[in-house]
Write a structure and sequence with these properties.
two-stranded antiparallel sheet, globular, 6-stranded parallel sheet, single chain, 227 residues, alpha/beta
Length: 227
């Protein structure tokens, strides 16, 4: 049997522009615990490594003198729990699909391409977001930050999903928007399509990639090169 081609997707900043809703949840937590709020653009630079990292990096950047308070695991755990609870209830208020995503997913399905999501968002939040925004059924598997004992940039987050799909790493490509995605794919020896203006502080020139795209419009041309 001919092995199917596999496309792995990051979620936040790749398939869905989630920054507006992440910002609302972040600012809800910061107000409650007495820290400064941030703008949507600020949040785009902090997303990618999970809720705990988002909270920690936000406060580290804004209140270094007070950061010792957040090193208290209990306080940080409370903040993360509050973030996840609030975000879970407000997950698609302002989030939108990145341009061209739906058409590309339909095209992949028509080409019999396997698709899966590899994200550092918690699995239950990822599934909920994908369902509510209407693209969950396109994916054969969704791996969140808590699905395995490891997550991106660990390459096993990607390779394990390909194995579960009975795929072939040599017939797989990763689509992401940050160095977390790119580094995982590079370590797994999988080509990377990188979105410009990703959820990262780094410039695209600083991030490993094989192809650079503005959005998903016309991305089929790149995938055809690998089929």
């Amino acid at each position: 049997m001919k092995q199917k081609f596999t496309v792995l997707f990051d979620l936040d900043g790749t398939l869905v522009d989630t920054a507006p809703d992440l910002m609302l949840a972040h600012n809800h937590v910061m107000k409650k615990f007495g820290y400064p709020t941030k703008s949507t653009e600020d949040i785009r630079n902090l997303v990618g490594k999970g809720a705990g990292a988002l909270i920690g990096r936000s406060i580290w950047g804004q209140a270094k003198k007070e950061f010792s308070k957040v090193l208290d695991d209990k306080i940080k755990d409370e903040m993360v729990k509050e973030f996840v609870n609030f975000y879970g209830k407000n997950i698609v208020n302002e989030s939108t699909l990145v341009k061209g995503v739906k058409d590309f997913l339909i095209w992949c399905k028509e080409q019999n391409i396997s698709m899966a999501v590899c994200t550092n968002k918690q699995e239950h939040l990822s599934n909920d977001l994908l369902k509510k925004i209407g693209i969950y059924d396109f994916f054969e598997y969704v791996a969140g930050s808590d699905t395995f004992d490891y997550c991106k940039p660990d390459p096993r987050h990607l390779t394990n999903v390909v194995e579960i799909l009975d795929g072939d790493l040599k017939k797989t490509i990763m689509i992401g928007d940050s160095e977390t995605d790119a580094n995982a794919a590079k370590a797994a020896e999988i080509p990377v399509i990188l979105l410009e203006n990703g959820y990262t502080e780094k410039n695209t020139t600083e991030i490993y990639h094989n192809h650079l795209i503005k959005d998903f419009t016309g991305i089929e041309k790149i995938i055809k090169e690998y089929l």
